């Protein structure tokens, strides 16, 4: 049996790690491109690794030689920031993330990689009418540099699509899930602050588990070219309020009767929820509330030694 070779840029990042592990579990041989070598325990199996940064002017062909798929999850930004990730270098940010991304797409096509998937973002939609549900036919209105460069990446990839090069972009919402040892996920600091009795400001947003992002990619690699090439797909599961997260944490930590108030629910009447119906039509089934509860409980369990000391 021949196993496909899949290349993942940004594979050592928070979202990239889910993608790499999903591909390994699906039987792919994976090559990872990243600025820093993976840590022990990052992945569930062995990977080949190429040290490189987005925007490097190098020969990318060794990474793509013999590969069937390319998943571009790399993004050059200030640590911890997507929106505002340009810092004080907006022009360099644009060059690295637009031209650097296009260079990778062209290298993949030149190497006869059959399929390329680009991780874009809900930020390409920008400001929309209050309460409007966002589907893939919604006109993008990127109003941050982050959204602008991702939208440019989508368009540059789509321009390369032809009968030999299947291209797809995923507009991904906020991603949650556990981090590897030594790194922190997005919700543990929130839970820690609440457990310490600090005031939590109301906030809500759409979320999807990293595992479900990985599953979306696997489905797109399995789908016919006609079903996915040149198209974009929203990837979003459910609306999550901070009060939802902390209510689960409250129960899991056994603090239901203690005086740590939950924040009030945020006002979401004007929020733009994303529809993932197009992806679900291909068979995608995200984990929903069950996976949210399981994940938060696991985060609390991992914190117990620290909170008990």
From TrEMBL:
Location of the NAD-dependent epimerase/dehydratase domain: 7-235
Pfam families recorded: Epimerase
CDD domains recorded: SDR_e
Name of the protein this chain belongs to: UDP-glucose 4-epimerase
Source organism of the structure: Tianweitania populi
Lineage, uppermost ranks: Bacteria, Pseudomonadati, Pseudomonadota, Alphaproteobacteria, Hyphomicrobiales
Record gene name: sqdC
